[in-house]
Amino acid sequence: MTTQTHMMTSTGRAATAAGLAFSFSAVRLRPLIAVVVASAVLLGVTLGGVIVPADVHLVVLLVAVPALTAAADNTCTTVSMTALACLGVVAVDVDDGLPSSPILPIDVLGLLVVCVLVLVFRRMRDVDHRTLRAVRSVSETAQRALLPPLPCRVAGLEIATAYRSAAAHAHIGGDVYAAERVDRTVRMLIGDVRGHGLAAVDDAAAVIGAFREAAHRDVRLEHVALALDAGVRRRVDQAGQTDSNAAERFITALVLEIPDDCHVVHVVSCGHPDLMRSHGTGVDLLEVPEPAPPLGLGGDQAAYQVNTFAFEPEDTLLLHTDGLLETRDAAGVFYPALDRFALLAEDEPQFLIERLMSDLTVHAGGEVQDDVAIVAVRRRAAPPTEGADEDGHHGSPVATEFGSWPA
Fold this sequence. Notes:
Layout: H1 2-51, H2 64-68, H3 75-95, H4 103-146, E1 153-154, E2 157-164, E3 175-182, E4 185-193, H5 201-217, H6 221-239, E5 251-259, E6 264-270, E7 276-279, E8 282-285, E9 307-310, E10 316-320, H7 323-326, H8 337-344, H9 349-363, E11 372-379, H10 397-402
Antiparallel strand pairs: 1-2, 2-11, 3-4, 4-5, 5-6, 6-9, 7-8, 7-10, 10-11
Organism: Streptomyces sp. 900116325
Enzyme class: hydrolase
InterPro entries: Bact_Sigma-Reg, PPM-type-like_dom_sf, PPM-type_phosphatase-like_dom
């Protein structure tokens, strides 16, 4: 598997680099190609108009010259090419014996009208592009506030995340993830709000806020899950005053705890897809036999059972939302997430999730219809020693690992 994985890694990187280079070149060459084609049309129609008999009026084709410059980047290009086209019109009409005919000003007027329309529509396009950039900037800021980047390394763990919203041009939706350092453990959450896209952001923000508070307040992991359920139910009750469908809102979630000094992971499942684990040369699902109801549906304390699984050095956990499993291709075949994870499990976490997200997009034909969140967590072979941070310096685990990380 190692040889195959390394071959896939190098091939994938080469393909990605080639694709980016091609896209970048295509964007930069597009205005030049437009000018070259417009110039060729101008030259060909002008020469053809002079050569062919006068009763064949080719000069009307010169309206294509300003139209073709719509792909150019600036106004000067369109105006310059239109001026040259007007000279071509004059040359052809004079050659055809029409200098005093109303046909000449009509032909020139047609070019000027097309030129003005191109400039107007380019201005409208530029305004739309600026608006879209502003919306994307706001969306990215909101995502960083709601889902701040998780640290790449925490104690003996390497963490990588990827997120894609189903809402067009948005960077945020109804899938959530979070992590908190609590004493000598790392507590994590991954959840999926009912619905997707921007409509689910409100519930997503609520459950993340509840997790950040409960993770530090409650000693037992099942109590964290119980607190999350209570928080979501309060949110649903409040929303019910203005939303008649609020009772149908819920959140599936996994709540995890990974201790520093024990090679295990504790999991409470609230109706969420099971996480995957690479272990040795294989991968498997860490199936929770009796998951609790999703958050917001009112499970009692007994429903939140802690399940413990081995998590050895060099193992990788893959946490994900159901968008990874339920994405279909054109033939209606679900994405084979476990098989793909098996092929990529030996990669570094960041590259692993990048390849998975890219492969998922290809499987979906370029457009994923649901929010997708992926978190990869690898336990390193040589975790830091007792009371030491990443560089071997002694100090507070929270201060050294999370000094610049939002609480």
